Amino acid sequence: MKKISFFTLLSGVILGSLAVMQSCGSGAQKKEETVKGSAPLEFREKLSDYGFFVGKLSSLQPQSNVIPYELATPLFTDYAVKDRFIVLPEGKQMRYVAEGALDFPDSTFIIKNFAYTNTNHEKIMIETRILVKDPSDKQWKVMDYLWNAEQTEAVKHITGAKLPITLLDDNGKAVSTVYQMPNTNDCKRCHIKNDVLTPIGPKARNLNFTPAAMPANQLAVWASRGLLKGLPDLKAVEQLPDWKDSRHFSLEQRARAYLDVNCAHCHTKGGDAYNTGLFLEYEQQEPHYLGIGKEPVSAGSGAGGLNIDIIPGDPEHSILAYRMNSTEPATAMPELARTIIHKEGVQLITEWIKSMPKQKVPAK
Amino acid sequence: MRNHFCLSAVIAACCLFASCSNLPKDAAEKAPEYATELTFNPGEESKIVEALLSLKANTSILLKAGKYSFDNLSIAQVNHIALKGEGKDKTILDFSGQSQGGEGIRITNVIGLTVSDMTIRDSKGDLLKINKSRDVVVANLNAVWKTADSTSGGYAIYPVMCNNVLIENCYAEGSSDAGIYVGQSDSAVVRNCKAAKNVAGCEIENTTNALVYNNEFYNNTAGFLIFDLPGLSKRGGHVKAYDNYFHDNNFRNFAKAGSFGTSWGVGNASPGSGVIILATSHIELYQNRIINNNSSAITIASGFAVDEKAAEKINDNYAPISQDIKIHNNTIEMGPEFPAPAYDHHIGKLLVAIQQKLNKRIPVIMYDGISSNIMTKGTAANPDGICINQPGDNIFVNADFLNMQHPEKWSPATDITAYTCK
């Protein structure tokens, strides 16, 4: 009996080894095939090299195949003025996905231009960020382009930059700051989810509205133009609230939309802040994950001597509001993408926390 | 090449049958070779920043001796990378100019990483954070803040959500949380390291299969912590610490008041703590020298000791009761008096109260006594497999935390019989 089982075990080892050898062989062949395919994508040196825009570059007048889009609730970036575009390869379509970003075909470009309004009320170009889905490995890649002082061209720039500017905020008030253009690793930091680089903005729910510049709901327009396939009846498509629209959305809805867009790319399972256990997606329902009554895990002195992320009814002692209201490195949240406080955002979150019914918090 | 690869695969396959050790390999054993080797000198900071942003897989970066100043550095999503200096006292990276972000050096999504042979210092946030990476070696690294106070960043050496981590021959000083902090990781070794003047010298948190040996953690608030916290990505446990020297950890707790959570943070560590085991299981402490940690040489506590709502947080990733704790063959000595900062600390005051109640020097091992009986309504004397085998007397106290608020019922007990290893 013993002998038989030993033999069985031994043959198992041999068969197992053979299997490994076989899979080795096919693996190596596959690898050769991949190498034979298209070479990895190389980014162009200048923004104009892509030919996305017609006429004067800084007017961002899109070519016919360049699709402008807007988001119901955008990320705050120092009151920057943003223009967004999608470029699909000839004859290809986006595919509707209910959760997360739309499914884009290989070689899609997503373009996001950042500008600010100066004290002469002129739009000054800062940077143009590009995401492209590399057909050689089907992975998204990032690059950033820095506009020159003459505003005639944007040039590839991987290291980020600190740019002293004076901008007008949403109330027309002048604010001086040192704008931080991200480096390419900073880009990855927000865009990597579950180890894969992914677009953040163009989710169906955040596109599901009618921008001022468009005749109808932009998802519907794209579907009718044959750019988007698989779009269900719009009634069945989730809608992310516009964080400024208090006529149609409740305080809580707007606050949660704001947190989703400004925080949840990192504060989600699989995101950069997975380790914090604070998850701020719009669909998140678990109070502890949302920070309600939750102690920080590794906030360090960033918590400012406060103990709880959100204390219902008490925004002054809630770490969430405290960190949004700071510009200090290691305290400020989000860690990237802003150098000044988003007063309107802080106010929204403060009001939301204030509106929550007070709970009994155990005394320590 | 192909055959060679197959041969290794066969060996690996056979190896599975022979139940290989899952421990990290020695740094030396790996002997990594890199396709690209880049070398930089002080003054070339902007070139270094650019090089790290444009890394291709299989690259080593050597920073020659001298002082470098950076805002911050990052490496992301690229495999088999080494960032090395010419020695701890030779290559110095200063991050006091940090203007954005949470750390001096952040490394994410790297498989095969070595950071070694340099000093990194004085960032606003953490010094070296390594997130979501695998096969990580941090060696011969000094990670220090010149001032040990609450303005320092939280963690000096901070791998989190990593797999297969080796930290060796490192020194951490001045962290306002833990000098060496391994969080939410699996398979970690910390050895031949030193940590001083941190709130916690070293902390293993929600991490499984960790070995901590041949280290010296001294002059911190608390020497060595093994914690599980609720609401995180994984449960910890299966940690062994041996042949360490945890001594003179009597430093004031300079974690920013409450900044690590009233309940859970290292702000809870009383000055004078040698080792604290909190809400984690399958722990073995042996052959350590635990000397002159003058509030509690070893503390064993449940999540209930710090959070009355711990039961609500139980799930697959969290169990508040510490179970299967083996403590044996350590050399433990405490000085005659609590350190002065313990009297000003909320947990320190509890320890002082226990001593007063016992009317003798507090025993070297303090157990909060909150057992799984409170969940099962059981009555067993030691239902959670606490096993202690230490020579000498005044070894143990069950501090009866549950009744501490009720002086008439509170009865700390020093009888070790039920907790002696069978």
CA-based gyration radius of chain A: 24 Å
Give the integer mean of the pLDDT values of chain A: 88
What is the helix fraction of residues of chain B, given as a range? Answer: 10-25%
CA radius of gyration of chain B: 22 Å
Strand portion of chain B, in percent?
35-45%
Which regions of chain A have little confidence, pLDDT < 50, spanning 5+ residues? Answer: 1-36
InterPro entries (chain A): Multihaem_cyt_sf, SO_2930-like_C
Keywords (chain A): Signal
Protein name (chain A): Cytochrome c domain-containing protein
Pfam family, one (chain B): Beta_helix
Can you walk through the features of this model?
The complex is a heterodimer of chains A (364) and B (422). Chain A is 24% helix and 20% strand. Chain A is α+β, with helices and mostly antiparallel strands and 364 residues long. Chain A folds into 2 domains: 190 residues, no CATH class; 105 residues, no CATH class. Chain A has a 6-stranded antiparallel sheet, covered by helices on one side. A two-stranded antiparallel ribbon of chain A has the order 1-2. In chain A, strands 5-14 form a two-stranded parallel ribbon. The longest helix of chain A has 35 residues. The N terminus of chain A is likely disordered. Chain B has 422 residues and is mainly beta. Chain B has a domain of 275 residues. In chain B, the strands form 2 sheets. Chain B has a 20-stranded parallel sheet that branches. In chain B, strand 1, helix 3 and strand 2 form a beta-alpha-beta unit. Classes of the chains: A alpha+beta (364), B mainly beta (422). The interface between A and B is large, with 53 and 66 residues. Chain A: Keywords: Signal. Chain A: InterPro entries: Multihaem_cyt_sf, SO_2930-like_C. Chain A: This is Cytochrome c domain-containing protein.
